[in-house]
Every structure is written in C-alpha cells, then in structure tokens.
Protein: acyl-CoA hydrolase
Organism: Ananas comosus var. bracteatus
Amino acid sequence: MDREEVIEFLGQVPLLQRLPSSSLRKIAELVEVRRYETGEYVAREGEPVDGLYFIWEGKAEVSGSTNAEEGNRPELFLKQYDYFGYGATGSVHQVNVVALSKLTCLVLPDRYRHLLQPKSIWNADETPENFSLVEHILRLEPLEVDIFRGFTLPDAPTFKQVFGGQLIGQALAAASKTVDCLKLAHSLHVVFLVAGDNNLPIIYQVHRARDGNSFATRRVDAKQHGAVIFSLLASFQKDELGFEHQSVSMPHVPDPEILPSMEELRERRLTDPRLPMHYRNTVARKKFVPWPIEIRFCEVSNSSQQAKPSLNYWFRARGRLSDDPALHRCVVAYASDLIFSGVSLNPHKQKGMKTLSLSLDHSMWFHRPVKADDWLLYVIESPVASGGRGFCTGRMFNRKGELIMSLTQEALIRKAKPPQQLPKPKL
C-alpha cells in the first residue's frame, strides 16, 4: 500500500475526518501495518492498549467475559474503516478482538495519540490567536459524526441576518470535513431558505450522498430553531490531469497595491468637501468594523448614482491562513457573496431611494487551485434583472490571469418599504 492509498483510507474513518489534512498526512506516515490470521487474537481483555487500530481489510469479532451484574456483553463485529483502542493513555483493552478472516490493521502507536487532538479543524499546531478572523469564522465545532456547529462571531461584521457567505463557507467546511483530504470541492450549489439569526449557533448536518474513487457528493442542511434555513450540495474530486483551455482573459485593471483600501475610501468620504455634511456625519457616526476580507475596488463610484451593471475588485483574506487547501476554498466561498448580488441594482439606483437585496441561490465552480490569502480579481456582471430578481455572473482570476472559478447568483431585489409610522395620539 502506498502513502496516498493510506491517506485516502484514513480520510474515510469518521473519527479522523475532523482532523486537519496535515494531521492525516502525518498519521499516514506513522501508522504500522499489522496482519492477523483467522481466529488470531488482535487484542485481549485486560492487556494494555498500545495504539489505535484501524481495520484496513477483513472482519473481526468483539467479545468480553461474562459479568454477573452486566450480564452477557453482546457480540459486535468490526469491518473496514472501523477502529478500536481509542481511549485514555495507559488504559487497558475492555474486550477481546478476534480476527474472523484474514485481517489487516493500521495501528497508530500510543505515543502519537496527541495527533488526534488538533488546535482546530484546519490547523494542528498553532494556537487560535494566530488565525485570521475569517479562519475563526470557518472554524466549526464537531459535535458528532457528520454534525457540526458554527457561530456568528461578535467581532465579525454583522448584517440584519446571518451573512450568506458565512452560511456558504461554513457549510462547505462541514462537507469538506467528511471527505478524504485528497478530494477537494469542484462545484457547489446552494439555496437560501430562511434568514438566519445572528444570535444563535448554526447546526450543520452533512448527508453523504455518494463516495466514489474519484468523486464524492455531500448535501448539507443548516438549521436553527430545528428548521432548515439553508441547503448546500457540493461535489468533490481527486486531483487529476486532463485537457485544458481558457478562452476568457482577465480584464486590464490596476494592480491592487496602487488602489485604495476600504479604510482609505472611508477617510476620503469623511473629508471630501463635495459630499453633504449630513452624509459625512452619518458615515462618521457609524461604527466601522473591518471585513475579514480585504477589498480594493478597481473603479470608485458614488454609491447613490446609477452605474453600469458590472464591477471589478481585488480581494484576499486578511491575515495569514493555514495551509489546508480545503480551507482556502471555503474562504473564497465566504467572500464570493460580498457585494455580488448588489451589482444587479446598479442601473436602478436613485438619490434617496433605499433598496434591499437578498440572495436566493448561488453556484460556484472551482477550476484551479486557489490561495485565498493572495490577491484575486473578482469580475462581476449582471446581464438581466426581471420579476423582482437580479441575476449575476462572476469570474475570479489570480495574478497570473488564470481563471480560478466561475459563479452565478440570483437575488431578490426590491425597493425598501418605508418604515410604518405609528398613528399620532389624539389626546
């Protein structure tokens, strides 16, 4: 068995799927191969546990001695991807494990047990304080096999409801932790059902639709108050060589280093004498919370004036990200919902008119590997708006001009209803 086979196998063991890919790769190097004949004892009750056993091939029976108080322990059977010996260091086997056929096990020696306790699902070694904010947002808490919990962090930018990009990124993170680390997301399709509550945790339930040699498919439901508020369908593929072409070119835009940041644009608005004083005062009073994604607009426009239904901007994650390739795809998925649907409102803006935009559905296709802490160019166009819905397409390019991913989104776009005024009392 080669190392890639071992990594792929370990990625199918439910206990290990919450680990960072770096931990799985280390474990793949450290496991020992042990083989047993039919009827041979693999572990004896009362003997010290010397490691964590994963069944690579074959079947085994679990049995124990009879206890007067407990009665007969039921017989259990172990098969491929099952494991035993998981417990406290220095413990002893509580049961007998006997091979029912020729049996092959991968054993992680007890001295490497610390690899099963990483700092987060993305990073095995560094303390959480070193992670970027967006990595914190995408850091889910594993509750059970295929069930995760996510949160809206207090120091992250908040909207009236849970940010759509947060749901996409966290759901993709949950799905990614249930496939082996050699398979990465190549497409996803989501539907937003109900607005999420910022003050409540979000439960992500992963459904394993398919596991193949090259592809895997996952469906994820996000729940609050026991109801599904969001659903994602994602497909994963093992890397392979194939035909390649690219018929679209990256637009000619200024480099991100010479463009103003969001903070600099805000300062300009505060001091621009051409803007009304009441507008500048309103901007100054609003608490400014930097987004976890750094954005540099290629063209700066007045947000209250009509504009063409297109937008180009550079973006990257603030701070350094862990090296896990799945994390970088989740970060880009998180960022993909920023300002996306609002582009379909550009031709309809009027001074003093308030609008609203709510994402309805969203799709992404990952064409090439991506580094989310390097600059990426987001090219957005809205070819049509009709029936109260705006449709947008997006492309993301790296600095080399390679098309990294393609996107589509449809959103509800409307004039905002004026706030209802309470009738004045007659007395």
Remarks:
- The longest strand covers residues 403-415.
- The helical segments are 3-10, 21-30, 133-137, 164-176, 262-271, 277-285, 325-335.
- The chain has a mean pLDDT of 88.
- The chain is about 15% helix and 35% strand.
